[in-house]
Design brief:
alpha/beta; 2 domains; 6-stranded mixed β-sheet; 21 helices; 8 strands; 58% helix
Length: 561
């Protein structure tokens, strides 16, 4: 593996100005965003800033992607908080120093797991969360995130218990809402949405923070019951191992780290590929995994929590003309200055302001357009996406990750178990026509050409044989030749080869003949080992290069009677 990051290849000096401008803009948007994510991870606000300092720098030096931005992310923050909240560890209270230490430990373990994933080239994990499942997962995270900010926006205590109990808690306490907190939240929403609508080039979130801090400070809102974020212990990120945790605690955080691993690889790969394609670039997913590993190790060793590839921040970088990771390094430098010298000025910020910022982030994660597109495309995939979303917000994000993987695999197995299959007909112009493989359909009198659009394996072998036998028995004319179109069958296991061998016996018992069309040599060899071409059989199975050749072979045979 080359030492210099691939994105440096072909870098031009004229890109530098664009990258600096894009980096400054990205910092203005990302800083309030990552501060908001700390309300999800339940860590000190400054830890959000730390996620886009050293983790961003390390990723930029190791990755292959030109544009992918790494930092705090709502989905992984939710997985982290949900997982740690479920641990029965004495004294582990959200927001405490012990809680942060466990967050750091989880980031370190996640970084190690990502490194292991790179060593064993497990970048293919990204392919096991299809777009439909990922949309459902992020939609569920969005619902959980936005609903979790409502109490802060209303100025009332957060409820406990499951998601439904927490919603009932704020609904039943609407009468005790603090009008000042509600006012700050409404003002924040109005500023952000207004700037997005009328002045999109200026980040509304940073404007909202400046305005609400100024008002809160001038009115001394904290003394009048408005909840503010208070003093922030800023400064240079603390470098070193987390205190109060050790190797014996790794086992406890391992399931959380595995969940983060799957989400990080899937989301980062999808984001990196998407934006690379827009610019005619390619990304090396396995190299990016090295960068993500380094970023998470850096997070755990610099006082913060798990980081991930961010679709929202990457979109911001791309939309503002960023050309490379140089823009992200600029963002990291600006954030470091803020963390070291300007955190004191953030103390009067109302929590309702931060809650409103995160609320809108949650809204953006709810992909209604994507869910509608899935529903229009395929209902069963929509059901999987919907179930994933509900499990995420109603049960838990970590459980949602497991459900997403299980449902994705089950959906894949279901399609392969019952793949699309056809009866093919050769039209007068010599091209193939397809008809659904339904009862009573044949290719032409005495001929059945069957196409099975999947590999044949133990789970669908019986279905494959049953379908062919059913079509034979229901054909209007006695079937003298069965042609199996193998163009979509790239493999058979032992169970499948035995099933096909039994099918050959069945066809022979019906005085028919079997031919394989468009079967590659490896597939033919598998059938030979499975006894499909057993010379003791009454009629030997043919292997023909094309379906058209099989049809010609059938037509050249004398008809019975």
């Amino acid at each position: 593996m080359q030492l210099a990051p691939p994105w440096l290849k072909g870098y031009k000096t004229e890109y530098l100005t664009r990258d600096i401008i894009a980096g400054v803009t990205l910092a203005a948007i990302a800083i309030p965003e990552v501060m908001g994510y700390t309300s999800i991870s339940q860590t000190p606000i400054v830890t959000g800033l730390y996620t886009i300092i050293f983790p961003t720098i390390i990723f930029g030096l190791l990755c292959s992607s030109r544009l992918l931005v790494v930092g705090a992310d709502s989905a992984t923050a939710a997985v982290l908080a949900g997982g740690l909240g479920a641990l029965s560890v004495s004294g582990l209270t959200p927001g405490s120093a012990e809680w942060l230490a466990w967050c750091q430990l989880t980031a370190i373990v996640t970084g190690v797991l990502l490194l292991v994933a790179r060593i064993f080239k497990l970048g293919f994990i990204a392919d096991f969360l299809p777009a439909s499942v990922l949309i459902g997962f992020l939609t569920g995270v969005g619902i959980q995130v936005l609903s979790g900010q409502i109490p802060d926006m209303l100025g009332i205590p957060k409820g406990s218990g499951n998601w439904f109990e927490q919603q009932w808690a704020w609904i039943s306490n609407l009468g005790s809402a603090n009008l000042a907190d509600v006012g700050y939240a409404a003002l924040t929403l109005a500023i952000i949405l207004g700037f997005k609508r009328f002045i999109p080039k200026i980040p509304g979130a940073i404007v909202a923070i400046i305005v609400t801090i100024a008002i809160s400070s001038a009115l001394d809102s904290a003394s009048k019951g408005v909840k503010t974020i208070g003093a922030i212990d800023g400064g240079f990120p603390p470098i070193g191992l987390p205190q109060g945790v050790g190797l014996s605690d790794v086992v406890s955080v391992l399931p959380i780290a595995v969940s983060c691993l799957v989400l990080i690889v899937a989301q980062s790969a999808a984001t990196g590929r998407s934006f690379a394609a827009k610019h005619g670039d390619r990304v090396d997913v396995n190299r990016d995994i090295v960068g993500l590993s380094g970023a998470n190790l850096a997070a755990g060793l610099s006082g913060t929590f798990v980081v991930n590839g961010s679709p929202t921040k990457t979109q911001i970088l791309n939309g503002n003309g960023g050309k490379s990771q140089v823009a992200n390094l600029v963002m990291a430098g600006i954030t470091l200055l803020v963390a070291m010298f300007f955190t004191a000025s953030l103390a009067p910020m109302p929590k309702a302001t931060l809650g409103a910022i995160v609320f809108l982030i949650g809204v953006e994660l709810i992909d209604i357009k994507g869910m509608k597109a899935i529903l229009a495309y395929r209902k069963d995939e929509f059901v999987v996406a919907l179930i994933t979303a509900v499990i995420v917000f109603a049960v838990g994000v970590e459980q949602g990750i497991i459900a997403a993987l299980v449902l994705a695999i089950l959906a894949l197995l279901r399609r392969q178990y019952r793949p699309v299959h056809y009866v093919e007909r050769l039209k007068e112009d010599g091209t193939l026509g397809y008809s659904p493989a339904s009862t009573g359909v044949q290719s032409e009198p005495g001929l059945l050409v069957f196409r099975f659009d999947s590999s044949i394996y133990y789970a669908n072998a019986t279905s494959f044989v049953d379908d062919v036998e059913r079509l034979m028995d229901s054909a209007p004319d006695k079937v003298r030749m069965v042609v199996l179109d193998c163009s979509s069958v790239d493999d058979v296991d032992y169970t499948a080869s035995q099933a096909v061998s039994r099918l050959v016996d069945y066809v022979h018992q019906k005085d028919g003949h079997v031919a394989l069309a468009e079967a590659d040599p490896q597939l033919v060899a598998s059938f030979e080992r499975g006894g499909v071409f057993d010379p003791s059989k009454v009629k030997r199975t043919e292997v023909l290069p094309t379906v058209a050749a099989a049809v010609e072979s059938f037509r050249s045979q004398p008809a019975e009677g």
